[in-house]
Amino acid sequence: MSDRRDFLRKTALFGLSGLAGSLIGKEKLDAVESASDFLVNDGNSFVLPKLPYAYDALEPYIDKQTMEIHHTKHHQAYIDKLNGAPANSINFSVDDITKCESVDATTTALIRNNLGGYFNHSLFWTLLKPNPKGEANNPGVALAEAINRDFKSIDDFKKEFSEKATKIFGSGWCWLILDTTNKLRIVTSPNQDNPYMKVMADRGKVVLALDVWEHAYYLKYQNKRADYISNWWNIVNWEKAAQLFSGK
Ligand code: MN
Q1: Looking at the domain assignment, is residue 245 inside a domain?
Q2: Cys staple from 57: which of 42, 53, 66, 102, with CB 3.0 to 4.6 Å?
Q3: Are 54 and 132 contacting, i.e. CB atoms less than 8 angstroms apart?
Q4: Which domain holds residue 185?
Q5: Centroid of ligand 1 to alpha carbon of 105 (angstroms)
Q6: 86 C-alpha to center of ligand 1: Å?
């Protein structure tokens, strides 16, 4: 087992240097490292992060039952699969997500599906924020300026994001990323892939994330994914998005 751990560590280091030297550069590498905040283990197993709000706090936009099942069943299931894997899976890091390849096909699938699923949900919860009074909810100045620069206006950006998220075939995610040329772009991924993964054509640092798996909305919205998305804009945590954007 320790041989395998050494191998994983070495391949992780190789992945990091490859990343630093080619695609992403030092600045972006730091951003990837800061994403490690979303993978937490207690030394023995990965742990389910607490939600930063109550299950019913996102009502009426996302209902209590959906949030509770999404967090305690779906998010937990990715963790259970990681924790049920060979003991050294707790050494997995965001770097493994980035490389998305491992010693064998089973481990690679575990990283892509379950480490990805664990990471994506841990990130997603922080990008949601209660808005019980239905107040206007828009990005702060710095991020708004970048959105205006790259999408013409906030409304154009929201329209494009909503359309791309609505059109994802099957299960997946829609992302706002800062790409390697420091341009904001909207990209989508299937299943639990994310824009840190080498398997994605469009990569970059995540600024915003939206889960469009049916389990994220079906109890309240049934087949009306577009309604879920238009309501989701009310509970986007723009402060967190700005933090991810600026890397602070
Ligand atoms: Mn989900």
Answers
A1: yes
A2: 53
A3: no
A4: 55-248
A5: 24
A6: 24
